[in-house]
């Protein structure tokens, strides 16, 4: 089961690049760094910890 790489922050709708910084919870809620910092690294949907999202290189 692959991680769903969301293309935008779920709070402010800022675009997120596959190779750029983003943060996720265990339910794959995805946020940009400024929103994550503003939320004290806690997911507003589930209350879980927000951690760095792995980066995915484009397929060749």
Describe the 3D structure.
With 60 residues, the chain is low in regular secondary structure. The protein has one domain. The chain is built from 1 helix and 3 strands; from the N terminus they run ββαβ. It has one helix at residues 33-38; strands at residues 23-24, 30-31, 51-52. Strands 2-1-3 form a 3-stranded antiparallel sheet. β1 and β2 (30-31) form a beta hairpin.
Briefly characterize the structure.
The chain is largely without helices or strands.
Strand order, main sheet: write it out.
2-1-3
The tally of structural domains comes to 1
The span between the termini is 21 Å
Poorly predicted runs are none
The SSE order reads: EEHE
- The 3D shape can be described as globular
Structural class: little secondary structure
Q: What is the alpha-carbon Rg in Å?
A: 11 Å
The tally of beta strands, per DSSP, is 3
């Amino acid at each position: 089961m692959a991680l769903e790489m969301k293309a935008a922050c779920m709070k402010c709708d800022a675009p997120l690049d596959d190779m750029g910084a983003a943060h996720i919870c265990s339910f794959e809620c995805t946020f940009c760094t400024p929103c994550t910092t503003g939320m004290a690294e806690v997911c507003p949907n589930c209350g879980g910890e927000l951690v760095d999202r792995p980066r995915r290189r484009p397929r060749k």
